[in-house]
Amino acid sequence: MSLRQMQYFVTVVEEASFTRAAELLHVTQPALSHQIKALERAVGGPLLERLPRGVRLTAMGRAFLPHAERSVRSAAQARRAARAAAGAQGGELHIATVHAIAVGILPDVFARWRAVHPGVALVLHEYATTEALEDQIERGTADLAVGPPPARWSGPVVPVGAEDIVLVVPFDDPLAGRASVRLQELADRFWVRCAMEAVVEGRPFLDWACARAGFTPRTAVRTEHTSTAVRMAAAGVGVATAPAHVVRGAVGEDCALLTVDPAWRRELAVFSRVPLTGAAAAFTDLLADARSSGEAPPMSPERPRADCDATVQVMP
Questions:
Q1: How many angstroms from the chain centroid is the CA of residue 85?
Q2: Is the dihedral of CA 227, 228, 233, 235 positive or negative?
Q3: Under 8 Å between Cβ of 76 and 142
Q4: How confident is the model at residue 89 (pLDDT cuts 50, 70, 90)?
Q5: How far is 232 from 192, CA to CA, in rounded Å?
Q6: Bridge partners, 193 (sequence order)
Q7: Where are the extended beta strands (E) located within 27-141?
Q8: Are 166 and 258 in contact (CB under 8 A)?
Q9: Within 13 Å, how many C-alpha atoms sit on residue 88's CB side?
Q10: Which of the four, 14, 99, 134, 153, has the lowest number of CB atoms within 10 Å?
Q11: Range of lowest pLDDT (174-183, 257-266, 290-299)
């Protein structure tokens, strides 16, 4: 079997049509069908079921697809890495992350990149959860990922700083004049929950944290995105948790921010399936420099001692 045959197969599956796949691949439909049949002979059985309208994967096709996707994307990644290694000029750098990091941290970093490396285009892939992010990087969707360090990862993982997780309340909230609050003080409050909330020890983060504080959070509303949860909290719907950079950078400071005592922080890293070279290495260095030089100062005049900080994986 050849890489081209696997590329043809992946395209047919993505388009669910031989006709549309042939148009995208700039080949004739008979030539495409011939290559798919040759691939099926090499594999030893049918990968696709031809239907009157479209195609459907067979059991063999479902088993074969992720490996074919990985091979095709790894080849594209190898081409990008080779071109970028020649002075970090030309081609594209594909970066994957979760929504909160995409809107809160990366815009300024992307702007710096464009100023320093105008010859390398950036392509951003956004995902709702860290689980989806790790899965897509494993499949070779992007050259590198920016997010919380994976618990189990065989490739390189480079720390690039940390982010503060804060509580969001409206300006007229009784707690708005304070810099920090203990979680127990919010036992009678309603909360705005986000679908992107991470899981800690098998439980949604807020359930886990509040249980440790001795209460169960009461949910006022559930949202899909962190930025929406912040807007809801600013309007007085309930208390929300969010990375500080999302509130400052993407939403604006039309609400009050409180740190939790002890503080909530989340480590951030760049990780990849392959060694970070060329443009990928240059972007990682730029991100690390930006995080070390551009992080906001502590929101509390007296930051809790380091041994009191709670370093946990919280909202993506």
A1: 25
A2: positive
A3: no
A4: low
A5: 7
A6: 222
A7: 48-51, 54-57, 92-98, 121-127
A8: yes
A9: 17
A10: 14
A11: 290-299
